[in-house]
Design goal:
The protein is mostly beta strands. It has a domain at 29-71 and 150-291. The chain is built from four helices and 17 strands.
């Protein structure tokens, strides 16, 4: 089976009156995206991995991903999306000032049904920019990016077939939602592949489930477009794009999405400039089916 965690990523920018559209990003099956260079890990304990620990983490996370690939699902939740674009990009310390950027807010009832090889997502639009709506089978009306099948995100980094295409390093320990987690980093095992994503993953120690992921920006399919955006900004700007996912909801041993945040920043001679920011929150889950064929 092949699919996407975030299937399209698109920015709309304006500079000197011209519209800029960064090309779509298509991701491999269940691979998340993101991570900005320099992402902080509060409370992280660094040090070499005890002998045999990294192979154990990879084995157990592969088993968890195998469950994700087999799981039957039927659930609904509330999906709240807030996007903000800055034109022109603004210094981070200057955020919140008058006249900066445009906003889009969306609220959906989101449903995902997975049975066998079939995966179906449906949305009912409830509110758009503060106005009530009632649109069954609505499209995802985001302007900055589009995403699909986020629950399957860990598979693209840690699933059995994907582990063969990565090399891994143990970075230490961290705390996520008051739980101890191992932090590992996945890099391409050989030459970079167009459909291979890589980055950092937080693995909960007590059950080896994935609780957080952050993808390296250089693995993004539209990263070259981000470089062009940096050139248009000037001031020696370099992309620093962060996309971080938390899996903060659990049911029957499967982790479900609680939030996705996207920060499109650029390091420059005049400071760190922000071009856009997006937050997606998932809450009020109702589970009807969460079943796997086998246990591990």
């Amino acid at each position: 089976m092949r699919g996407c965690a975030i299937s399209h990523y698109r920015h709309v920018r304006f500079r000197t009156g011209r519209r800029r559209v960064l090309s779509a990003l298509v991701l491999p099956w269940a691979a998340l995206i993101t991570f900005a260079a320099g992402l902080a890990m509060s409370g992280q304990e660094q040090g070499p991995a005890p002998e045999g620990l990294l192979p154990q983490i990879l084995e157990k996370t592969s088993e968890y991903c195998a469950r994700l690939e087999r799981v039957s699902l039927d659930f609904v939740c509330r999906e709240a999306i807030n996007e903000r674009q800055y034109s022109p990009p603004v210094r981070l310390f200057g955020l919140g000032g008058p006249g900066h950027g445009t906003r889009v807010s969306l609220e959906y009832d989101y449903q995902l049904v997975r049975s066998g090889a079939s995966v179906v997502e449906k949305r009912t639009l409830l509110r758009e920019n503060g106005r009530p709506r009632n649109e069954p089978n609505a499209a995802l009306k985001t302007k900055l990016f589009k995403h699909r099948y986020l629950v399957f995100g860990p598979v693209g980094l840690l699933g059995g077939q994907w582990q063969l295409r990565h090399s891994y390093a143990y970075l230490g320990e961290d705390t996520v939602d008051k739980e101890k987690a191992f932090v590992i980093e996945a890099d391409p095992a050989g030459a970079e592949e167009p459909d291979l994503l890589y980055g950092k993953v937080w693995v909960r120690q007590r059950d080896f489930t994935i609780v957080k992921a952050a993808w390296d920006q250089h693995s993004l399919g539209n990263f070259e477009a981000a470089r062009k955006m940096a050139e248009s900004i000037g001031h020696g700007a370099e992309p620093r794009i962060s996309i971080v996912v938390y899996y903060g909801v659990e049911k029957n041993g499967i982790r479900f999405l609680s939030s996705l945040t996207v920060h499109e920043d650029y390091d420059s001679k005049v400071g760190v400039l922000r071009a856009s920011e997006t937050e997606v929150l998932y809450k009020d889950y109702k589970f009807f089916v969460v079943e796997t064929e086998v246990r591990y």
